[in-house]
């Protein structure tokens, strides 16, 4: 029988966890799969870990993982995924904003052969207009700048197949924008639309400052566009400077050098300014390449490979394991 693990990162979710676990277990009980739950305590300051431990004491399917301090959701999630050896994993928030009742549908699509099944929010209850607007703006910018298409209105709530988890484990970059990494995997991905509920208890751990940094993280890890800005600004300024320099020179030649030294001084300043910006841009380009190399992402992932002469009607991917 195949095996499903649910990974739940939690930071100060002591108030929600029991309710969450009850709802989750009710869903898992209906699945015809062996299942368990891995709670990851991301250095909470409240009783989150104590609640996790009491859940573990009462339920043999519960495992817990406690990080040494708060590392942020992306790393808590990574730690959880690193500790999973199931055939599939579901990632879900502990605050009941992602309904556990959707898991059976995720599993259905996984059995159909999808490697990544993610929840896309049709509505976002309990979120302000400003948050909806900023989030829409973020996805738009991301779509423009990044060659990895990150699906809109999609959080981390998703199911990953074994090979998707294994591939994800090969992405060891330390600046981790998980939604981008999930999208980077490719394979067969499926969106399931759902209505996002309001938080069960407590408040969001992501204020605007954190969200802004998160957005910068996403854009800078999946696009070199900001680095190219220096190049374009440099070339543009250098061109303008060149035109202006010709103008100053022409004026000096026709009308004479009224303010002694001004034309030559201006020429030198403009020329050097333009050259410097272009040089900076060039350094930016190399820095961008260096940055891509340093991440040491695998160069590609293979979906299927059929050797010549193997005539058995093999199933794609690891679908046979389901
Ligand atoms: N979370 C975490 N570490 C953090 C912040 C959040 O593990 O540093 C968890 C949190 O407990 C929840 C999930 O990540 O299970 C989503 O967080 P939150 O609900 O605050 O984000 P939002 O739904 O507002 O985007
Ligand atoms: Mg939430």
Write up this protein.
With 322 residues, this protein is an alpha/beta fold. It folds into two domains: 3-222 and 297-306, Alpha-Beta Complex (Spore Coat Polysaccharide Biosynthesis Protein SpsA, Chain A), CATH 3.90.550.10; 225-295. The chain has ten helices and seven strands. Strand 2 (34-41), helix 2 and strand 3 (62-66) form a beta-alpha-beta unit. The longest helix has 33 residues, at 262-294. It is elongated. The protein starts with a strand and ends in a 28-residue tail after the last helix. The model has no long low-confidence stretch (mean pLDDT 86). It binds uridine-5'-diphosphate and magnesium ion. Magnesium ion binds at residues 93, 95, 97, 199, 204.
